[in-house]
Amino acid sequence: MQMDPIQLALGFTLLGSVLISAEELDFVHCERVVRKWADSSSLEENISENTRSLQDLLFFLHVPRTGGRTYFHCFLRKMYDSTDECPRSYDKLHFDPRKARCKLLATHDDYSLMSELPREKTSVMTIVRDPIGRVLSTYEFSVEVAARFLVHPNLTSATVMSARIRKPNAVSTLDIWPWKYLVPWMREDLFARRDARNARGGVIIEGNNPYDMEDMLMPLHEYLDTPIAHDIIHNGATFQKHTRSGDVCRNLKASVKLFFKLLRGFGIMQRRLDTMLYVGLTEEHRESASLFAEVVGSQVLSRVVLNNATAKHKAAKPEPRVKISESRSGNGERQNDASEVALDKAETKSENMTVKTLMEVYEGCISNLRKSQAIRRVNSLKRISPANFSKEARKKVPEDVIERIITLNHLDVEIYKYAKGIFAKEHEQVSLKLVSRNELGRMFREVDDEKLWKLITVSLLVLLLFLFFLFVNARRRTSKVKI
User: Fold this and answer.
1) Element (H, E) at 398
2) Helices (H), 72-154
3) Which stretches in the chain have pLDDT values below 50?
4) How far does CA 451 lie from the centroid of its chain?
């Protein structure tokens, strides 16, 4: 039976109207859910006097490629004992922190994890990076780690061997979000391009722009517009610092725009940054590290001294020592190089550390960490030569590609601008405190230098007068005895 074209058209129109109505109903439902969530969040994110005070649990909300790994290894692991870390906190997502008592939670998870934490007893810290630098670094690291697998003859061999060498007690890059998705995807692309070159009898790679070598690796401009980049990379900092919109409304792409429109309207993005204990900037590395040591480090060290004193008084147990060994590493996709195990062999008692010594330990640790990372980076990029990522090479990224990154990450641009304002205020306040403290110390030192001999002279005179008094008093007693 054939349908009349007019009837067929009417049928499709009717079906379309039904589908549109269903989508509209879903959108209305999603809007109601998001608004309810935004209302509750606006009430929760109140700034209190305890915002700048370290609470029982420190939640390090680590946005990938912001330099957080150096903070974790060279700051946090120097101050917190390994027993203080929440189990599998750094490499796994969505665990239940209520199962264990812990003081340090470091994870790539998003802010929604706060719903599982005791809000009034949790301090949050994070680091924010210029979205352009973060996206470029994400692209570079995806390629770098995936290139390590090119030692294998084919993709099947690389996949099988990577599964075999992974150990249950070691942290692998492929276990960590977002690399567990980005690296296998990029690895597959690298092998496909290598196979294509071999099929053509070998191709000579020309050009000096590693971000646009199509025969060797996925060009940056192509990478930016892939579905996985839109899902994971773009506006990644904003998603992590709030919650992934998919957790609120999974079936509507429009819910993403709605979600962040409401976030803007309620000012939730800014308010959450305001309530954090510490907000650092990747680009202001030295200043951020100093600020962290003064704001967070000083409070952690003070607690260590207090807790150790209490423990000694109660149980006289041995003093806890700072955990300095790094995670084990393996071959291929291991995140940590074996050379990192010896980053800082000298154990340091955290109770004896000051803000100054903490910074010295940090500087030594980060220097060694960067050396090991640089060696590994060079070895990885050799496999995709002549592609070589560097600060100088980034200048070759076309302006239109940079503008595309800004457009795709406009929410992160807002976050970054606001974070810069918070950092500037905090840095100014800490700098003023340091200046006042240094001036006070200098005044005392100057007073000591000027008055030292006078003080000694006066003390000697007082001592001589006291001795003379004793001598005279003794003579009087002797005279009375004779009479």
Assistant:
1) none
2) 77-79, 131-147
3) 1, 3, 5-23, 43, 93-94, 244-248, 250-254, 313-314, 316-347, 481, 483
4) 49
pLDDT in tens, 214-235: 999 999 999 999 999 998 999 8
DSSP 177: T
Determine which one of 119, 321, 475, 476 is catalytic: 119
Q: What is the spatial distance between Cα 246 and Cα 256, in angstroms, rounded to a whole number?
A: 8
Interatomic CA distance for residues 383 and 309, integer angstroms = 54
Question: N- to C-terminal Cα distance for the chain?
Answer: 151
| Among candidate residues 263, 236, 268, the one with its CA nearest the CA of residue 408 | 236
Write the single-letter amino acid at 85: E
CA atoms within 13 A on the CB side of 55: 23
Residues near 466 by Cβ (< 8 Å), separated by ≥ 6?
A: none
119 is annotated as an active-site residue: yes
Max CA separation in the chain (angstroms): 151
Distance separating alpha carbons of residues 100 and 85, to the nearest angstrom: 10
| CA 365/CA 78 separation, integer angstroms | 10
In single-letter form, the type of residue at position 483 comes to I
Laid out side by side, the sheet with 104-107 consists of 104-107, 57-61, 122-128, 278-281
Q: Which of 31, 140, 333, 426 is catalytic?
A: 140
Distance (Å, whole) CA 401 – CA 210: 14
222 is catalytic: no
